[in-house]
Specification:
This protein has 264 residues and is an alpha+beta fold. The chain folds into two domains: 171 residues, Immunoglobulin-like (Sandwich); 32 residues, no CATH class. The protein is 31% helix and 37% strand. The strands form three sheets. The protein has a six-stranded mixed β-sheet with strand order 2-12-11-4-7-8. A hairpin with a 4-residue loop joins strand 9 and strand 10. The longest helix has 23 residues. It is globular. The relative contact order is 0.19.
Length: 264
């Protein structure tokens, strides 16, 4: 009697699992970037990179009325920064409150087909870290509050984003991704001259009706080359020798300037 029940159970499972598997999204995003290695030399003034790709198994009929949204996020190496607030005490401006933020992207850019608020809700954006408001920027320290009573912590967090934007290291292009065919898409971003070196991740997300269907990642490496790389490596690998050499060069340059400008 037991063995007769096994086919019935298998048939019941197949009937239940069949509709569920049919509902799983079949669309897949395939993407790449125009350059995976960028060398920084003395004449480096920035570089433009292109993110491109296609949607596999797309249900598009025409790209002018797209069923999909695409969001591109470029994240640079993590850094630790200190944000200070100046206060006027006894007529003198001094540094008062300060917070240290860790895991701040050295570079962060977001490009999308539409404004992020129209692409997905806040829960989805926070889950994938899409947008400035979705970055996990929290102050360090056991006594660092999640939110200060007067909202000053939010001010500090906003200052982190504002300073990065002023330096050209944070950017947001709400219509930076465009479809160039029924399934093809393209986006461009200009890396500034002060972009930090290190390993970058370029994430491309495919969404439909606010749900992430597929995700693809490409790696980008930015490194110094030539004499700049030698100086950079010496400063970080041998800081004591680098400091001594810098002092000696400065003294020598000062003596040479004094000799050349001396009047007899």
């Amino acid at each position: 009697m037991i063995w007769r029940g096994i086919p019935i159970l298998m048939m019941t499972f197949w009937l239940l699992a069949g509709p569920l598997s049919a509902q799983e999204p079949t669309e897949q995003i395939e993407s790449d970037i125009s350059s995976r290695n960028i060398a920084i030399e003395s004449n480096f003034t920035g570089q433009r990179i292109v993110i491109f790709g296609t949607i596999e198994n797309s249900e598009h009929s025409e790209f002018e009325t797209s069923l999909y949204d695409i969001v591109v996020a470029i994240r640079g190496p993590k850094e630790t920064i200190v944000i200070r607030k100046k206060s006027r005490i006894a007529g003198i401006w001094i540094n008062a409150d300060a917070y240290t933020y860790a895991n701040v992207p050295g570079y962060y850019a977001v490009l999308s087909t539409r404004p992020l608020g129209e692409v997905a809700n806040r829960t989805v954006l926070n889950a994938y870290g899409l947008g400035f408001n979705s970055l996990n920027l929290r102050p360090l320290g056991p006594n660092a509050p999640v939110a200060a009573a007067d909202g000053s912590l939010n001010t500090f967090r906003a200052a982190v984003v504002r300073i990065r934007q002023d330096d050209g290291l944070f950017s947001y292009k709400p219509e930076g991704v465009t479809f160039v065919g029924r399934n093809l898409f393209r986006a461009t971003i200009d890396l500034p001259a002060n972009v930090p070196v290190g390993q970058y991740a370029t994430d491309v997300y495919l969404l439909r009706n606010g749900t992430v269907l597929s995700h693809n990642r490409s790696q980008l490496k930015i490194q110094k080359q030539g004499f700049e790389r030698f100086v950079y490596s010496a400063a970080f690998d041998h800081p004591l020798l680098y400091g001594i050499a810098a002092v000696i060069i400065a003294i020598f340059a000062g003596l040479m300037a004094s000799v050349m400008t001396r009047r007899d």
